[in-house]
Specification:
- By secondary structure, the chain is α+β, with helices and mostly antiparallel strands.
- The protein has two domains: about 30-80 and about 185-255 and about 385-450, FAD/NAD(P)-binding domain (3-Layer(bba) Sandwich), CATH 3.50.50.60; about 125-180 and about 260-380, D-Amino Acid Oxidase, subunit A, domain 2 (D-Amino Acid Oxidase, Chain A, domain 2).
- The protein is about 30% helix and about 25% strand.
- It has helices spanning about 5-10, 15-30, 35-40, 50-65, 95-115, 135-145, 155-165, 185-200, 240-250, 275-280, 345-355, 355-360, 415-425; strands spanning about 40-50, 70, 90, 120-125, 125-130, 155, 175-180, 180-185, 205, 210-215, 220-225, 225-235, 250-255, 260-270, 285-290, 305-310, 320-325, 365, 375-380, 390, 400-405, 450.
- The strands form four sheets. Strands 5, 6, 7, 14, 15, 16, 17, 18 and 19 form a nine-stranded mixed β-sheet that branches. Strands 1, 2, 9, 10, 11, 12, 20 and 21 form an eight-stranded mixed β-sheet that branches.
- A hairpin with a 2-residue loop joins strand 10 (about 210-215) and strand 11.
- Helix 4 packs parallel to helix 8 (about 185-200), helix 4 crosses helix 13 (about 415-425) and helix 5 (about 95-115) packs across helix 13 (about 415-425).
- The radius of gyration is 23 Å and the shape is globular.
């Protein structure tokens, strides 16, 4: 049988199928040459930064029929920012009610995205939040869970030991068990959103730096290292690189609001096979421990130190137990260009602050030799550890900013994608309380802005 021509192969297909095939073929061709989709092209939306929030936003905009360009300065799924790795704790238990409410929606958004992708990024483990009785964080967390209908149980240390023998909690400790909590596979999740964006007709280019942006009342001009494009609007999700881009493009100095902090992620050896089974994802919930202490120097908002745990899941025989806050313990901040920093994890912080916590609370973990593995990561922090979702000053409402998720924003990624798509298209959203995340809350800090330019 002679081979069929391409035209004869598609001739019998429905019109919608032909359009879909043509769009995917065209997209795959243009991705081979970044310059061909950049220089002089016009898009409805340009999304800057392909971490979890930028990728989710681009995927959601594409799903709504918008012509989207997602630009990443490094390789896809790189390890220089805050969205890489294999595990992110995902839970609805928060001391802050608005986060609890948002997570109820975010779980649904993750489910929708995974169903569209055809593969799950989430492992259900259940979750424990614990602190000494009377700790303000645990008290507020229990209240928020009850008021918002989040399934939970309040447990004693004895209850925890009987149900989860991997943990050993001190007397006088209050624990909250949340059965719906678990772990998101971070890198897989980012890849999922990028794949969905591409399938829906979005254009994705990596190894392409955004050099500057200029917004007018009519749109946005974006100058990149591989050509210039225009767009109706732009969403900036550049993480630690946000402050430099906003200053050079819009004369907006957010250096007192956005702070990049190098952190370390530590993994510890299980003592034996029995301990590894107790600490496995089948038997060990994720956890957050509110210590009630600032560990030497409480931050300006009085947040106590937090430790977190994910079970044996990423690597055989290794459990992740790390320090989350306060950020001042991590030492020197990232100054200037985050790309120029040395990617060396602050190991001494882990050894000094985490080792004793592991020895006290995890009888099945060998803390005598210190951590088995320490990996670098980076937080982009705000002074109050909350998010920024707002229009960019001097952008004429054409550019939206999502940033500073302060080490706890990954779990909101699927929801934030929908929120940013709403805001970019209509300027409003009912998916999240955006007023909680406006820049105006930092009115006591200096946010310099040059006069608007048309």
């Amino acid at each position: 049988m002679p081979p069929q021509s391409p035209s004869s192969l598609v001739r019998g297909l429905p019109l919608d199928a032909v359009k879909s095939l043509w769009r995917r073929t065209l997209t795959s061709v243009v991705h081979r040459n970044a310059e061909s989709v950049l220089d002089g092209a016009h898009y409805d939306y340009v999304v800057v930064g392909a971490g979890v929030h930028g990728s989710a936003t681009a995927a959601e905009l594409a799903s709504r029929g918008q012509r989207v360009l997602l630009v990443e300065q490094f390789d896809w799924l790189h390890r220089r920012g805050s969205s890489h790795g294999e595990s992110r704790i995902t839970r609805s238990t928060y001391p802050q009610t608005h986060y609890t409410q948002m997570m109820k929606k975010s779980f649904l958004c993750w489910e929708q995205a995974c169903n569209a992708y055809g593969s799950s990024c989430f492992t259900l483990t259940g979750g424990l939040d614990f602190a000494m009785a009377g700790n303000p964080a645990i008290t507020a967390l229990i209240k928020s869970a009850a008021e918002n209908g989040v399934p939970h149980e309040v447990l004693t240390p004895q209850d925890v030991a009987a149900r989860f023998p991997a943990y050993s909690l001190p007397e006088g400790c209050t624990a909250v068990y949340h059965p719906q909590a678990g772990v998101l596979a971070a890198t897989k999740a980012v890849a999922m959103f990028q794949s969905l964006c591409r399938q829906r007709g979005g254009v994705l280019v990596d190894r392409t730096a955004v050099l500057s942006m200029h917004a007018t009342s009519g749109g946005v001009e974006v100058r990149t290292s591989k050509g210039n494009v225009t767009a109706e609007r732009c969403v900036i999700a550049a993480g630690a690189w946000t402050s430099g881009l906003l200053r050079s493009s819009f004369g907006c100095d957010l250096s007192r609001v956005l702070t990049a902090v190098p952190v370390a992620v530590s993994y510890w050896r299980c003592k034996d096979a029995a301990s590894a089974e107790q600490l496995s994802a089948r038997n060990c919930p994720v956890s957050i421990f509110y210590t009630g202490a600032g560990l030497g120097n409480a931050d300006s908002h009085g947040a106590d130190a937090e430790m977190y745990t994910t079970p044996v899941l990423e690597m055989p025989g290794l459990v992740k137990i790390s320090l989350h806050l306060p950020e001042h313990l991590w030492g020197a901040l990232v100054i200037g260009d985050p790309s120029a920093r040395l990617v060396v994890p602050p190991e001494e912080v882990v050894r000094h602050h985490v080792t004793s916590f592991v020895a006290t609370h995890f009888p099945g973990v060998d803390s005598s030799r210190g951590p088995a593995l320490i990996e670098p990561c980076m937080y982009t922090m705000t002074p109050d550890h909350s998010f920024i979702i707002d229009t960019v000053p001097n952008s004429h409402g054409r550019c939206w900013l999502v940033s500073a998720c302060s080490g706890h924003g990954f779990k909101f990624g699927a929801l934030i994608g929908q929120v940013m798509a709403d805001l970019a298209i209509t300027g409003t959203t009912d998916a999240a309380p955006v007023d909680e995340f406006r820049l105006a809350r930092f009115s006591d800090l200096q946010i310099d802005a040059l006069p608007s330019r048309l």
